[in-house]
């Protein structure tokens, strides 16, 4: 099972960078989590849209969403030209209405499934992976996501500290967790995001095997985020690096 980081910046990219986008692959199956700005061109460096099995949007903030608008055109073109003969399943939460309703209109490209409407516990098979969703703590409807293939991958999405995420991340082979700031930002972040140290503490509480931090604001030195995350985790912490593929 492989994870390729397509984009890791928030809420805007650094030069030549991309916002949230993560590609999970195993046995020829491909699942894309988040379509932040810049993610589609990065995805196309690794695969063709016709081979994309499904997409999950953790939430509809622009840094996790924007390239859905260009992916729509790529999927429609692939169908029109006979390279693909299906709609791509997209799992997403409801809201804000303006974005959601616009995506609802892309029904030639996408087959939409509201995560909110999945019966509890929100477990479903997506692209051959077992996927579980847990609501995160954010200022929009948003989810943390566990994806199980031969290994267990957990992505925090955007979230403040959340006991339910600790349960979801329990025993993860790789936990990809947002780390949106340093200790000094804790007050500013506290309702919607995690500091790097909190990401580490949460990962330690969950007993994950590996922690990779992401969702970097371009203002920060990544080495400082990494150092504070490692203090929280008590072990080495990896940084998400655009273009890098890691084996779970
Ligand atoms: Zn967000
Ligand atoms: Zn974000």
UniProtKB/TrEMBL annotation:
One Pfam family matching this protein: Lactamase_B_2
UniProt domain Metallo-beta-lactamase: residue ranges: 18-193
InterPro entries reported for this sequence: Metallo-B-lactamas, RibonucZ/Hydroxyglut_hydro
Domain of life: Bacteria
SUPFAM superfamilies membership: Metallo-hydrolase/oxidoreductase
Keywords assigned by UniProt, alphabetized: Hydrolase
Recorded GO MF terms: 3'-tRNA processing endoribonuclease activity
PANTHER family xrefs: METALLO-HYDROLASE YHFI-RELATED, ZINC PHOSPHODIESTERASE ELAC PROTEIN 1
Identification of the protein by name: MBL fold metallo-hydrolase
Source taxonomy: Bacteria, Bacillati, Bacillota, Clostridia, Eubacteriales
């Amino acid at each position: 099972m492989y994870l390729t980081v397509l984009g890791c910046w928030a809420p805007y990219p650094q030069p030549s960078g991309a916002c949230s986008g993560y590609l999970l692959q195993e046995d020829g199956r491909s699942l894309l989590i988040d379509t932040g700005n810049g993610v589609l061109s990065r995805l196309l460096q690794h695969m063709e849209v016709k081979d994309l099995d499904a997409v999950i949007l953790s939430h509809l903030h622009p840094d996790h969403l924007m390239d859905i608008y260009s992916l729509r055109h790529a999927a429609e073109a692939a169908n029109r030209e006979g390279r693909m003969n299906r709609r791509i399943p997209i799992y997403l939460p409801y809201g804000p209405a303006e974005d959601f309703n616009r995506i609802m209109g892309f029904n030639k490209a996408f087959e939409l499934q509201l995560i909110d409407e999945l019966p509890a516990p929100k477990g479903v098979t997506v692209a051959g992976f077992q996927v579980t969703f847990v609501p995160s703590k954010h200022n929009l409807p948003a989810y943390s996501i566990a994806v199980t293939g031969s290994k267990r991958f957990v992505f925090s999405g955007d979230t403040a500290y959340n006991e339910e995420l600790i349960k979801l991340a329990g025993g993860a082979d790789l936990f990809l967790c947002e780390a949106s700031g340093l200790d000094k930002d804790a007050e500013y972040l506290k309702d919607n995001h995690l500091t790097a140290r909190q990401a580490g503490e949460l990962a330690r509480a969950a007993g994950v095997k590996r922690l990779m931090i992401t969702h970097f604001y371009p203002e920060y030195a990544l080495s400082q985020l990494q150092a504070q995350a490692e203090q929280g985790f008590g072990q080495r912490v990896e940084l998400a690096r655009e273009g890098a593929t890691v084996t779970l």
